[in-house]
Amino acid sequence: MNKKTFRLGELFCGPGGIACGAHKAQSKDGSLTIEHAWASDFDPDTCLTYAHNICGGDNSSVYCEDVRELDIDALAEIDAFAYGFPCNSFSNVGEHEGLDNEKFGQLYTYGIKVLKRFQPDWFLAENVSGLKSAGSGEHFKQILKDMEEAGYVLVPHMYKFELYGIPQTRHRIIIVGIRKDLDAKGFKFYVPSPDPYKDCDISSRTALADIPADAPNNEIRQLQDKVKRRLSYIKPGENVWQAQDLPEELKIKTRTKISQIYRKLDPDKPSYTVTAAGGGGTFMYHWSDEQRELTNRERARIQTFPDDYEFFGKYSSIRKQIGMAVPPEGVKIIFNAILDTFAGIEYPHIDATMNE
């Protein structure tokens, strides 16, 4: 058995959701694994969280700076690459400017620079579902074209993570690229099938059960009495707009009725999408009679982070880190498929092109 460990570089690494999944992944025969080489993000709290959990506290290979100032040529050699380039301009919430957004739209190009500089064997890129429709679909085509021209055969797919055993309705576009010369040699990636996970219990009740008393980031944030009263009228699985007999003084008076406003989890269904930010009513709410928000640890559970994965920063910063992350157990499935591809091992897959 020829063993190999792929050295993984990351841009926009976040708190380490991708890296956490990568470190857990291996080919079915155990011959192929993934290890951290370097990572970059601009947010200090995020970098501290990443270094603590992924690098054992050593931040020497975690570059905390704006990617536009990162010296890519000085980074260590890698043979695998991952990046969840910023979704701000591609999300369906907001202006949806795509590549035209001056601040965020072109940040994906720094990943293209990494691909051209290092020519890794493979890469994984992640973004929101709105990526496909930005610029009437033309922006997505441009991004794929740039990745192909960097030397890769691409397999983009809209992954619905709840179909892969993740207790959350989270839909994300993930693009896997295999270097063209390796694809020509028969190392062809296929989208892993969700069938092995169809019987998984992905209910919120199961996801949030038995959190250890000493788990970090599990503080309950105190709510105003008015908010608690409002929540008392909302049934599990419903939001403030669906509340019956809600007194006038507790009603929300906005033009848009966003479905996540004061929405409680349904204990018997997967959670709705964990988000990174938002004002009043967007913090996700427990179904119990406690009338409370989820704790950050509970959000991390829904995102499938291990209970000993510690996040650093103030409450809002930790919430943002968790919401921006890729679910480790979800991306692990994709990494396993990539490693099986290079180990020459067949795995259950679907013959999928870009769906929906």
Instruction: Report the end-to-end length measured between terminal Cα atoms.
Output: 40 Å
* Structural class by helix and strand composition: alpha/beta
Q: Which H/E pattern describes the elements?
A: EHEHEEHEHEEHEHHHHHE
What's the level 1 CATH class of the domain at 4-201 and 324-350? Answer: Alpha Beta
What coarse outline follows from CA principal-axis ratios? globular
Fold and architecture overview:
- This protein has 356 residues and is of the alpha/beta class.
- The chain has a domain at 4-201 and 324-350: 3-Layer(aba) Sandwich (Rossmann fold), CATH 3.40.50.150.
- It contains 10 helices and 9 strands.
- The chain has helices at 17-24, 44-54, 109-118, 138-149, 180-184, 204-207, 225-232, 296-302, 315-324, 328-343, and strands at residues 4-11, 32-41, 62-64, 80-83, 122-128, 152-160, 171-179, 191-192, 349-350.
- The protein has a 7-stranded mixed beta sheet with strand order 3-2-1-4-5-7-6, with helices on both faces. The chain has a two-stranded antiparallel ribbon with strand order 8-9.
- Strand 4, helix 3 (109-118) and strand 5 form a beta-alpha-beta unit.
- Helix 1 packs across helix 10 (328-343).
- The chain is globular and about 65 Å long.
- The chain starts with a strand and ends in a 6-residue tail after the last strand.
- Residues 89-93 have low confidence and may be disordered.
Topology:
Layout: E1 4-11, H1 17-24, E2 32-41, H2 44-54, E3 62-64, E4 80-83, H3 109-118, E5 122-128, H4 138-149, E6 152-160, E7 171-179, H5 180-184, E8 191-192, H6 204-207, H7 225-232, H8 296-302, H9 315-324, H10 328-343, E9 349-350
Helix pairs in contact: 1-10
